[in-house]
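Recall from the previous lesson that a structure prediction takes nothing but the amino acid sequence as input. Here we apply that procedure to DUF3105 domain-containing protein from Streptomyces liliifuscus. The sequence below is the only information supplied.
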Amino acid sequence: MARTSKKQAAADRKARIEAMRRAEKARERRNRIITITLSTAIVAALVGWGVYAINNANDKQDQKAAAAAKPISGEKTWDAKKLGRTHVQTKVSYPMNPPVGGNHAPQWMTCNGNVYTKAIPNENAVHSLEHGAVWVTYNDKATAADIKTLAGKVSKTPYTLMSPDKTESGTIMLTAWGHQLSVNTASDPRVDQFLTKYVQGPQTPEPGAACTNGLTAS
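The prediction returns the following tokens.
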């Protein structure tokens, strides 16, 4: 009788252990399913966010490119491929004034936000344009207030230079390689548009080339 009781107790213990093992395996399966489900949801959310972020970034880049491609009202352009880029030691007769490109002197005008109070050589300024600078010029019609405003903008903007030009037709003219804009006042919003678009802009033949350590003038 005692032996039977022992066998029964052992059997009961074995049954309990098996039941516990089954329960543990069931919990492990549930935990695995929950983990996989949560992981899948997280990955899907991250992928969805990543796709959104990429698309959003691409949209912004497309908008920026579209804005850059849109011409500024009143802007004149020249075919950059037809503008010479040979270094010469002689004076160059440019077909437009101020020149927007063409053959030029081997040394550029320093264009690190430099404001020149006297006229500068076209041949050196054109070399600055080749490096991605915007050249701001003005004639005698420009007011003292406008000249001061322009000087303030230029002095804070690397890859720009400014100088007077009594011979130009426009009161204030902004020139980049192959592009030019004429305005009457420094407050014209197109001034900032031109600077934003063309300072080291896509028109630059030699992007990243230095605007420091060039020719300087008082």
